[in-house]
Amino acid sequence: NHKMDNEEERKNSTEEAGSSMNHQPPSPSSPSAASNSGQKWISNFMAGASPPKFVSLEEIMHAANAIFFMPLAHEIAVDKNFQLQKLEPEENSIQKKVKEIMHKAFWNILAEQLAEDPPRYDQALVLLREIRE
């Protein structure tokens, strides 16, 4: 008896679930029946809202940067004659002097470390890393 009740419940639930898949358009002779069953058919296929997704500040900044550089990327892709010009600082500018001092300091440190006994390769590894990048 209990087994028969379970089979009936399963049959009823299967019929209800299959009703939206086996839906046939209503006959044009009954307009009210057509609109009601059509609404039921549509509501069976509507998905619920997805839960809100929280976005980190880092993701927002990444998207903002991508949008900011998009016109430049487009210009580079479309314009065959597009060229970037290397910015050379003026002869006696502070920018040029700082650059020269930094280069000399880097190479002096590299030479000192390699001249030590035993040689240290810290600065040489930094140089190789920068070259690779």
Automatic annotation (TrEMBL):
InterPro entries: Tcp11 (IPR008862)
Disordered: annotated span: 1-38
Protein name: Uncharacterized protein
Family as reported in the entry's similarity comment: Belongs to the TCP11 family.
Gene Ontology BP term (one): signal transduction
Biased amino acid composition, Low complexity: 19-37
Biased amino acid composition, Basic and acidic residues: 1-14
Lineage, uppermost ranks: Eukaryota, Metazoa, Ecdysozoa, Arthropoda, Hexapoda
